[in-house]
Design brief:
This protein is an alpha/beta fold and 671 residues long. It is built from 27 helices and 20 strands. Helix 7 links the parallel strand 4 and strand 5. Helix 18 packs antiparallel against helix 21. The chain is elongated, with a radius of gyration of 31 Å.
Length: 671
């Protein structure tokens, strides 16, 4: 099994956290796209910067986790302050609770304290304080030899007390995590073996004098790209240099200028703009496409170079470096956020804003940072002001061949020296053969985790306990608060004791392969035992006696109870289905087919006098149980007139409507 397929198996069929790395051009971006299309897990994709998040079609880390801008120190006091200031809404909490797979793209740029902050938030939200990232599988994608995290001196003065360094693998959670390390090793970008070997030497701080001499043979300070006949693009370290080159070359063209403006819709912050909002072009301008062609023709891709041939107010025509002529159309980038509806464990994507523009930027020069992930045939590298080895490696590895590289300045030796901690980390990982041998065990471990999760009610108990504490601080809520939560929490705690014993049985059966044929039988027996008890708990929640005339308090209480009801319903449903097909595929198919029926839960009461009318609410409970008006009167030993009077209270408040009644009741209600 090659590294690519091994990584895919680990993500799809295990719960192990993974660091997926690889040299430039080994397919990390392709891997991410495939996962988003095929993986059945509830996932979210995040990246450290706005532009990286847009490119990965995800969110920024700070946005998804609502992290404050200040440093996070890994202390109990800092965690308490973080949680107290977070004020995360129920919708966002539901998203994080439902997450099974968190993908962090460009993880090489994520600082160690940020990774620890993500870990702290997930442990808190998932009510799993003893599990890294709250038990969520985390896939970290990136190349440590490319762009590194940034820690200003004043920040590092505070962080150095807790961290050996700023790299993500130096986070405290990383030591506890021990993720699977998989390096993609097939390079699609370069085909020249000698060039690949030199790039590997740069990565490993092992550049030989001979190889350095080969690099410096590409040094030509007088090189003029426009007189060479090939399309060379200059890669430089700083925006100021790049802007100056592009402005100078554009001004030198005598053709008429045309300016094109982006259309920004709804929420799309300027910090996330994929290109400049204003694009000024002339015929003859060198440009680069910054997005793949979304049309069926697929005429261009991100990084393809071209020259402008004709311009008008609303049209741009170019000829690409391969000779193809293209009438450029606008492309749209979307700003996304994740949502999760009540009663659903699905994490879905919602578009909250868009940025529409011609997908071009001036490309006599671009920064090395913006060149990351792109491929060119000919590059001119200005690395005189390179301040990190990652910059030089990114620049060198953008080109398909050594012959296509021109150096305007010799490469400074200090810019070719990678951090020792990176080399130590990468060299002390398991080899690919050992990782593959451990796959089968990890798959069985994941099946065990999924099965045990169906008989683990601790998270629900914690949610109820937290809700109970919050409700007691709501002065507007009335009803038998203590009795309701005591019944729910006590009932689940008793069930948890039995469930933990059954979890132990599951582990023994799964890890003893000879007992596997008995797994379905034991799961069926467990369903017979747990199903009626879960059903009883569902009915208790549906008949919650808590009432309030405060809309916000009512919405909060109802939302939490509905989420708990949905989670229990889902467990009960999957318990039944998985007992017939105890496998990973069986679990995901069962979960996908689950449909939740929302109970008629009433918390809000518009009038204070109704809140204390326990008899009226008792009548409402019987109605929700499916009884007719006559049956309720008989059951409660009351007159039909009294029962109708109770129900009209709720009809007037629009708490119930005609859909709640049997046809025979309509006559009684009209009397």
């Amino acid at each position: 099994m090659n590294a690519y397929e091994l990584a895919y198996e680990y993500v799809q069929h295990t719960n192990r956290c993974i660091f997926l790395t690889g040299k430039a051009g080994t397919g990390k971006t392709t891997f991410l796209r495939r996962l988003k299309q095929e993986c059945p897990k509830q996932m979210a994709v995040v990246a450290p910067t706005g532009v990286a998040a847009i490119n990965a079609e995800g969110m920024t880390i700070h946005s998804l986790f609502q992290l404050p801008p200040q440093l996070f120190l890994p202390t109990p006091e800092a965690r308490r302050q973080l949680f107290s200031e977070m004020q995360m809404r129920a919708q966002k909490q539901r998203i994080l609770r439902n997450l099974e797979l968190l993908i962090i793209d460009e993880v090489s740029m994520v600082r160690s304290d940020i990774l620890d902050t993500i870990d702290a938030v997930l442990r808190h939200i998932k009510h799993q304080p003893n599990h890294p990232f709250g038990g969520i599988q985390v896939l970290m994608i990136g190349d440590l030899f490319q762009l590194s995290p940034v820690a200003r001196e004043e920040e590092w003065r505070l962080l150095r007390e807790y961290y050996e360094g700023a790299y993500f693998f130096q986070a405290q959670v990383f030591r506890e995590l021990q993720p699977v390390y998989i390096e993609l090793d097939h390079v699609f970008r370069q085909t020249n073996i000698d060039f690949l070997e030199i790039l590997n030497q740069v990565r490993n701080n092992a550049l030989t004098p001979e190889s350095r001499k080969i690099f410096n043979s590409r040094y030509n300070p007088y090189f003029q790209a426009d007189k060479n006949g090939e399309y060379y693009i200059t890669l430089s370290t700083h925006n100021s240099k790049v802007d100056a080159i592009n402005r100078r070359e554009l001004d030198a063209l005598e053709a008429e200028s045309f300016t094109y403006q982006a259309r920004v819709k709804d929420t799309f912050p300027e910090s996330m703009y994929p290109i400049d909002e204003t694009l000024t072009l002339k015929v003859g301008a060198k440009v680069m496409f910054v997005k793949n062609d979304s049309s069926q023709e697929k005429l261009y891709y991100n990084g393809k170079l071209a020259t402008v041939t004709a311009l008008s107010k609303n049209e741009i025509h170019v000829i690409c470096e391969d000779g193809k002529e293209v009438d450029v159309h606008t492309e749209t980038w979307e700003n996304l956020r994740y949502i999760s509806e009540t009663g659903s464990n699905e994490v879905q994507v919602e578009v909250i804003g868009s940025f529409t523009h011609f997908p071009l930027r001036l490309a006599w020069a671009i920064t090395i940072h913006k060149a990351q992930g792109l491929t060119f045939d000919h590059v001119v590298i200005d690395a005189e002001d390179a301040f990190a080895a990652g910059q030089v490696y990114v620049a060198l590895s953008r080109c398909r061949s050594l012959e296509g590289i021109v150096l305007l300045t010799p490469i400074p030796m200090q810019a070719l020296i990678n951090a020792r901690e990176i080399l130590y980390f990468t060299k002390n990982q398991l080899d690919i053969t050992t990782t593959e041998q451990r796959l089968a065990g990890a798959q069985m471990e994941y099946l065990t985790i999924l099965l045990c999760s169906l008989y683990d009610f601790r998270s629900i108990i914690n949610q109820l306990s937290s809700l109970s504490r919050n409700v007691k601080t709501m002065g507007s809520v009335q009803g038998d608060i203590s009795s309701f939560f005591t019944t729910c929490i006590g009932g689940l705690e008793g069930l948890q004791i039995i469930a933990e014993r059954f979890q132990q049985q599951i582990r023994q059966i799964v890890y003893n392969s000879a007992s596997l044929p008995n797994l379905a039988e034991r799961l069926q027996a467990a369903y017979v035992y747990f199903s009626p008890k879960i059903q009883q708990m569902l009915e208790t929640i549906a008949k919650c006696p808590l009432r309030t005339n405060d809309r916000n308090d009512a919405a909060t209480v109802k939302q939490h109870l509905l989420d708990i009801h949905a989670e229990l319903s889902r467990c009960k449903y999957i318990q039944q289905r998985i007992s017939q097909s105890p496998s990973l595929d069986g679990f995901f198919k069962a979960r996908q087919s689950f449909r939740w029926v929302e109970p008629p839960l009433v918390i809000y009461s518009q009038h204070r006098k109704i809140r204390s009318d326990a008899s009226a609410f008792k009548t409402l409970e019987y109605l929700y149980a499916g009884l007719t008006i006559s049956q309720i009167a008989k059951e409660r030993k009351m007159t039909i007139r009294t029962i109708v009077k109770h129900l009209r209270i709720f009809i007037d408040q629009e708490i119930i409507d005609s859909s709640n009644f049997q046809p025979s009741d309509y006559i009684l209600l009209r009397k």
